[in-house]
Write a structure and sequence with these properties.
The chain is mainly alpha-helical. The chain is built from 7 helices and 3 strands. Among the domains are: 86 residues, no CATH class; 32 residues. The chain has a 3-stranded antiparallel beta sheet.
Length: 172
């Protein structure tokens, strides 16, 4: 535990995680985690969980309020964090409702189109004739008869003696 953290603040963080709060919210990548930023800011992933699209974020929120180093990779782009108050204010706006409804309509239309394309492809596959190259059925039957006459099956295969492992007698 870092010197500036208390048991109480750690318990609060654990409680937030158990309640599902803070998921997708940015944590400070420089080390111990900035619990203040986690409670006051949302990451792009947190916004997606709330129904935001990347276009909606650009259109309604614009530039992030805070940039943090990615905790998983220093080379990765920095995490964009947006103030919760600003996000909630945008979500209450009429513009958000209109943009959100349009995004939902586009998403539903895309799902319907994907299902239609899938049905069309499956119908084309089912309608495609399957030609199997091989002899005609009467030739195949004649070949089978010839093979059977040339290679007769023994009347009875010799009995195989069971090993001790398989329940047979021990070797002599």
């Amino acid at each position: 535990m870092a010197a500036h953290e208390t048991n109480e603040s750690l318990q609060e963080q654990g409680q937030e995680q158990r309640n599902g709060q803070g998921q997708g919210q940015g944590r400070d990548a420089e080390g111990g985690g900035d619990s203040h930023a986690a409670r006051t800011h949302l990451s792009a992933a947190g916004l997606r969980a709330r129904g935001w699209t990347a276009g909606m974020v650009r259109q309604l929120l614009g530039e992030p309020d805070l940039l943090r180093v990615n905790p998983h990779s220093q080379a990765a782009p920095r995490i964009r964090l947006y103030r919760v108050e600003r996000v909630e204010a945008a979500e209450r706006s009429e513009e958000f409702r209109a943009v959100s409804a349009a995004a939902a309509r586009r998403s539903a239309a895309a799902r319907v189109a994907a299902r239609r394309r899938r049905r069309e492809v499956l119908a084309r596959i089912a309608a495609e004739p399957i030609d199997v190259a091989g002899p005609a059925p009467h030739r195949l039957a004649a070949s089978a008869v010839e093979h059977t006459e040339a290679h007769p099956v023994p009347a009875q295969a010799p009995e195989r003696q069971l090993s001790e492992r398989e329940g047979g007698p021990p070797p002599e």
